[in-house]
Specification:
6-stranded parallel beta sheet, 3 helices, 12% helix, mainly beta, 19 strands
Length: 250
């Protein structure tokens, strides 16, 4: 497949070279078809080339099992800022996530990235929230023997909205390093971001947690969602062991 350019509204990603699109591998994005295998095939194709960017155009993609982003593979979508344009929160690239995945919905290898994507669990309930696997987990964070550790981290999250995860993002408890998360928005039911065993500098910038994102997506009342989060003792950010960890403007 030939490389192509796309233009986006994301700062820093106005013009991106893409390796392929998920629609080239059969993704429908209609909210009904199971698009899991199409995403996997697109991500595997990029990985087979040693890395690349897979583009998912705006749409509602039903994802029924885990996805893995191999080293140097990025998944890029269309995204609207949920605080500046909350009425468009569901209009971009939305992954309709199953609560019954075998593991985290998205596993990020060292050097991979998720950019410009919204995740929503359609079967989750405000009144009766149910546990499910984490939405995102940094994986493969420590380099193999003989590899320079300074190059082994850098799992990237940018411009990502997690509408209603049980657990949003896990950095740990496995050793990991050098994660980068910028402009991350979520309404976590139990835990937003967990940080542990970070053996080199982690970075969290513009982390925004509140009931308004779930309310904006579903048209519900933020006050009732916030009350449910308090009853469930939801935690926004849980910091444990980290050699260095930046948390800025969050």
């Amino acid at each position: 497949m030939p490389l192509d350019f796309i233009k986006t509204d994301l700062p820093g990603y106005e013009r991106v070279v893409i390796t392929c699109t998920v629609t080239e591998f059969g993704a429908q994005g209609d909210g009904q078809a199971d698009d899991t295998e199409a995403f996997r095939k697109a991500l595997d194709y990029a990985a087979s080339l040693g890395g690349g960017t897979v583009y998912a155009p705006a749409g509602q993609y039903r994802i029924n099992d885990s996805l893995y982003l191999a080293p140097n593979v990025y998944l890029l979508g269309r995204w609207f800022h949920p605080d500046r344009t909350p009425e468009k929160i569901a209009d971009g690239t939305v992954l309709l996530a199953s609560m019954e995945t075998a593991g985290p919905l998205i596993g990020l290898a060292a050097g991979s990235g998720l950019i410009g994507v919204t995740v929503y669990y359609p079967d989750q309930s405000v009144e009766h929230p149910q546990p499910c696997p984490a939405t995102i987990k940094a994986m493969d964070g420590i380099s193999p023997p003989g590899q320079d550790r300074a190059t082994s981290g850098f799992a990237v999250l940018k411009y990502v909205t997690l509408v209603n995860p049980w657990t949003g993002v896990l950095y740990g408890p496995d050793w990991n390093e050098c994660h980068v998360a910028e402009y991350l928005f979520m309404t976590p039911l139990k835990l937003g971001v967990f940080v542990n065993m970070v053996t080199d500098i982690g970075r969290l910038t513009e982390l925004h947690i509140g009931a308004r994102y779930w309310a904006a997506y579903t048209g519900g009342e933020a006050a009732s969602i916030a009350a449910a989060l308090r009853i469930n003792k939801s935690v926004g950010l849980h910091l444990q062991r980290a050699d260095w960890q930046y948390v800025f403007n969050s």
